[in-house]
Amino acid sequence: MAIRPLVILPDSVLRQVSKPVEAVTPEIKALAADMLETMYDAPGIGLAAIQIGVPLRLLTIDLAKPEEEKAPMTFINPEITWSSKELNIHEEGCLSIPEYYEEVERPARVKVRYLDLDGKVQDIEADGLLATCLQHEIDHLNGVLFIDHLSRLKRERVTKRFAKAARRDSAA
Ligand code: ZN
Questions:
Q1: What is d(CA 26, CA 117) in angstroms, rounded to the nearest whole number?
Q2: pTM of the predicted structure, to 2 decimals
């Protein structure tokens, strides 16, 4: 297992649409293990493979609190099969947009179909933080970031700030 470098806004890699995982091979399992290690190290509660530069439809999530035992979840080729009409507002952040948090409105509940690490089809119904997290991470697979759900003004402001920081880093 290894901690991989995170892709940060405004890197255009984050706008790529990820490809389906064709088979759950040992390489895919190793990638999921690296993603979990990278996510715990950050620390974060969710990570899409594209955030470490791998354009595959693969997510890891762990919503356990620091004092709780780890509860890693891996979602391969996840698809939202149903969303509630009822909406919910939750504050979101993103490991690719460090230290920036904003409230985002999304469906309160979703059903997601995915493959587990044994290659078996699973269906879950999620609400609360898991529903928000799954929608945020599945957005990543389609090149969508949570700032795309904000007003244009807020999105432009944060994008400019990160573009400036990236220029400063490359000049240093
Ligand atoms: Zn994110």
A1: 10
A2: 0.96
